[in-house]
Amino acid sequence: MRHAAFATIAAVLAAPAGADTADGAALLAQDWEAVVDQARGGEVNFYLWGGAETSNGYVDWIGERLAADYDITLNRVPLTDTTEAVNIVLAEQQAGQDESGAVDLVWINGENFRTLRQGDLLWCGYTEALPNGAYVDWEAPAIANDFGVPIEGCEVPWSRVQFAFAHDSARTPQPPRSIPALIDWVEANPGRFTYPAPPDFTGEAFVRHVFYHAAGGPEALMGPFDQEVFDEVAPKAWEILNAMEPDLWREGATYPTSITQLQGMVANSEVDLYFTYDPAEVGAAAANGTFPETMRSYGLTGGTLANTNYVAVPYNSPHKAAALVTLNMLLSPEAQLEKAQPQVWGAAPAIEVERLEPAMQEAFAETPRPAQVVAPEDQGPQLPELQPAWIEAIAEGWIDNVGTR
Amino acid sequence: MRALPPALLLAPALVVLAVLFGGGLVLTLAGSLGGWAPALAQARLPGAVLFSLWIAGASTALALALGCAAALLIRAGGRGTGLARALCQLVLTVPHAVGAVGLLYLVSQSGLLARGAAALGLIGGPADFPALTQDPLGLGIILHYTWKEAPFVALFALAALQGRGPGLEEAARSLGASPLRSFWHVTLPLLRPALLRAGAIAFAFAFGAWEVPQLLGGSRLLALPLLVWQRFTAADLAARPEALALAALTALISAGVAALLLRAAR
Lengths: 405, 266
Fold this sequence. Notes:
The structure holds 2 protein chains of 2 kinds. Chain A is α/β, with parallel strands linked by helices. Chain A is built from 16 helices and 12 strands. Chain A has helices at residues 2-14, 24-28, 32-39, 53-70, 83-94, 111-118, 141-144, 179-188, 201-214, 227-244, 259-267, 280-287, 320-330, 333-340, 358-365, 388-403; strands spanning 43-49, 73-79, 105-108, 145-146, 149-150, 156-162, 164-168, 273-276, 295-298, 304-312, 348-349, 382-383. In chain A, the strands form 3 sheets. In chain A, strands 1, 2, 3, 6, 10, 11 and 12 form a 7-stranded mixed beta sheet that branches. In chain A, strands 8-7-9 form a 3-stranded antiparallel beta sheet. Chain A is globular. Chain B has helices spanning 6-31, 36-41, 45-76, 81-93, 96-107, 112-119, 139-161, 167-174, 179-208, 211-216, 224-232, 240-265. The longest helix of chain B is centred in the first third of the chain and has 32 residues, at 45-76. Chain B is mainly α. Chain A binds chain B through residues 81, 83-84, 86-87, 90, 110-112, 114-115, 118-119, 191, 197, 199, 250, 253-257, 264-265, 267-270, 388, 392, 399-400, 403-404, and chain B through 43-44, 47, 109-110, 115, 125-127, 131, 134-136, 214, 217-220, 230, 232-237, 240. Chain B: One of its GO terms (biological process) is transmembrane transport. Chain B: Belongs to the binding-protein-dependent transport system permease family. Chain B: This is Putative spermidine/putrescine transport system permease protein. Chain B: It comes from Pseudoroseicyclus aestuarii. Chain B: It is found in: Cell inner membrane; Cell membrane.
C-alpha cells in the first residue's frame, strides 16, 4: 500500500514539465507535429453530460484510442447538467486560476456556450490548426451558429441531431404526428403523457415545440429576444399547456424531473410517448433492453428542432496540446464513423462525408440504422433553435405559469 | 510523552474547520451581495421553505420516536439485540444517495413493490400503486430520512442510557408506576438531552441536503436546497448571487432550528 503511494508520488513528480500547455498562443505558433509531441504522455479532462450509456461508452473508446496512439489519458467526468462545468470554470476564474483549470474539454451548445463566451472563458482561434478541421464545413450556417450565436473559432462541432418523438408500435400503433394532434391525443388518453419539467434540457425543448405552435411557426421568434412578441405568444402557449395538465400523468400534480426518469416511465408503461433530442438513443435503448424492440421514433409533420453540438476548450485548460489532439481525433473520419454506428451511438456526423475518400464515403453510406431510429429523410423539416435569451424566457415562463401555478 | 495542552491538540481540527467551513461561509456571504433582494422576491421561496421544514420536521419526529423505541428494546436485552445494534450501525454506513435510489427501486411506481403488486393482480397496473415518490407531500423523502436517521437516534440514545442501568425505572415501577408512567416521567426525561441533540443533527441534515429531494421529490414543490441548486446552475450568470443568498438563508434557518433544539437540551 505504502509502496503504491510512493510510486504515485514519484510518477507525479517525474511527469515532464512540458505537459503543462496552458499557454494557447505559444502552442498555436508551432506546427502540428510539435503540438502532438507536447501532448504525448499527458492527460485530458473531458467534462460531459453523462446520462446516456452510448455517449459515455463512445468517449471511453476515444480514450482507448488516445492512450494507444498518443499515450494520452482521457478522464471522462460525467455531469447531470453542463452548467456544472460552466460553474467550475467561472469559479476558477474568480479564484484567479487562469492556467490550472480542471476542465480541458466540455461537450456544449446553446446557452452554456453563450455564457462562457460572455465571460470570455473559452480558448478561441485554434480550429484552423486541426488537420481534420478540413472535413468540417465551417461556413455552413448550421455549424457557424450555435443557437444563433456565432462560434467564431471557439468550439468544434461534434454531432448533429434532430428532435424526435417515440412510441411503442405494439402498444400505441397510432401516435400523434403533430403538436395539434398531440394536444388532442392527450385529451383522448388521460394519464398517458407527460414531459420533464424545465429546467430539464429535453423538457425545455418539448415546451419550445408547443411555443412554436402557439406562435404559428418559428419565424416570428428568430433573432434577438423581443419582449413584445414574447408577451403576445407566451399566454397562448401557457394556456395550451395548462389545459393539457389535468390529462397528464398524475393529473399534472407533478412532472418528471429528468428525461432519464421519463425514459423509465415509458419503459414501465406508465406513459406511452417518449421524446429525445437524439433519435439514435431510442435504438440504443432498444438494443440494451430498456425499450421493447417494437419502439419506433418519428418526426412531426410540422418539423422538429435541430441543432449541432460542439466541444470547447476553457481558457484556463492546462492541457491544451492534449485537448487539441483529442479534438482532432473527434473530427477524424474513423472516429465520426464509429460514432455513427448504431450499436455505438448512432449520432449523425459533424463532418462533410463528401469530402472523405471514396472508401470512407461508402462506409458511411453502409452504416446500418436500427428499426427503432427514424430515417433522417422521414423526420420532417428541421426547425431552427432560438437564441439563448428566448430559451431562458420560455423556461422561466413555464416554471412561473405552468410548473408552479 | 508529556500531555500536550488541549488547545494544541485541537488546533489541526480547528484550522480545517476555520479554513474550509469558515472560508466557504465567507465566500458564500461575499458572493450573495446583491442577491438578497431577488432571493427574497423569488416566488418559489415560501413554498420551498415550508416544504423543507415539513420534510425535515416530520422525518426528525418519526426518527426520534422509532430510534428511541429501538434503543429501549436493545437495552432491554434478549434475543436479537446484538443483531439489532449491528443493523443500526450498518444503516449509518449507507450513503444517502444510495439509500434513496434503493427506495426508488422499491416503492416508486416503476419499483419492485408496484410491479410485484401488479403481477399478483392486487392492482390493475404499476401506475395504480400509491404515489410514494415524486408525490406532493414528499412521503418518499420523509420515508428515506426516517429510515436513515432512526438508527442514528437509537445509537445516540443507547450511549445516553449506557452506564445508568435500569435502577431509576425499577424504583418507579416498584413504587407502583405503570410502565407508561415510568417511561413518561423517568426514562424520557433521562433521554431528553440526547434525543434533542440527535434531533438537531438529523433536522439540520434533512433540511440542507440536496440529493434525496432531487432523487425522490416532485417538480412542483422544490425543497429549499433544490431551489438553490436550480438557481446556481441557471445558465444566466446573474442568478448566482441569488443562489448564494438562498444558500445562506438555508444555513440560517437550519442553524436557527438546531440552536433552539440544542438550547432546550441543556
